[in-house]
Amino acid sequence: MGKIKVGLFGFGRTGRVVANEFFVNEAFDLRWIIRKTEQTKNQYASRLFGYEYDASPILSEQVLNRSFFEDHRADVIVDFSNEDGYKKYAEAADLGIPIISAISVYKEEDIDQLKEYAAKTAVLYSPNITLGVNFLLVASQLFQKIAPYADIQIIEEHFREKKEISGTALKIANVLGLGKKHVNSIRAGGIVGKHEIIFGLQNQTVRLTHESINKAAFGQGAIFAAKWLVRQKKGFFSMERIITEMIAENLPTY
Fold it and tell me: What is the per-residue pLDDT across 87-131, written as a single tens digit (0 to 9) for each?
């Protein structure tokens, strides 16, 4: 198989970092980038990343239609745009192009629409696509089954400007059957993102921690997901499922 051709939605603070991760990875060909603004004429990601050649054009969403997805075929679409971005690639789903959505602010009806796409193609939805956070989700559920009597608290730390409670922390609470009162938030300058789950047992504690050092972790998670998803046909998937399957395949035997 040759390079995996990627179409990227979103070119904000996170989208730019994700784009660069795909751009410099030899397994991928970043074919195009879609952003909402129209101020993209003659722009190429390669130039913005400091290279002296034109590659990975940055296009306005006004170019999108069925013929665009046919003429600029991607092997996978990766979405880091916004909560309305999924509406822009319905025709790509009709063509069977796999989709990765890394949007954290979906409503239930938005997720239902992604599931409709999954009847036509492979769709992976992960509100936090970093490999470490999704391992944390799986590992915490496993430990809770081993020690269901443990007291559990979740601590989420983020940069000062983040006002809302971390969606990832709320998801951790949800999968562990806990309420929002178990989530403790810290805001301070210099923190990218950190999640810690504390299990309090008699005479001991267990702490599971994930910390994002750089937004590049999101790009590396998307790369991990893309390599897996392009081998699937149809269905609705999650990073947790991939990691759970990999853990099951690699459990030590005695």
Answer: 999 999 999 999 999 998 888 999 999 999 999 999 999 989 999
Catalytic residue among 5, 162, 194, 227: 162
At 127-186, the pLDDT tens digits run 899 999 999 999 999 999 999 999 999 999 999 999 889 989 999 999 999 999 999 999
Q: Which domain holds residue 25?
A: 4-125+216-249
Please tell me the predicted confidence (pLDDT) of residue 42.
Answer: 65
Q: What CATH number is given to the structural domain containing 169?
A: 3.30.360.10
Catalytic residue, candidates 158, 195, 210, 215: 158
User: Is 158 in the active site?
Assistant: yes
Q: Report the amino acid identity of residue 175.
A: V
pLDDT at 236 over 80: yes
| Domain match, 23 and 109 both | yes
What's CA 75's distance to the chain center, in Å?
17
DSSP state letters, 134-158: HHHHHHHHHHHHH-TT-EEEEEEEE
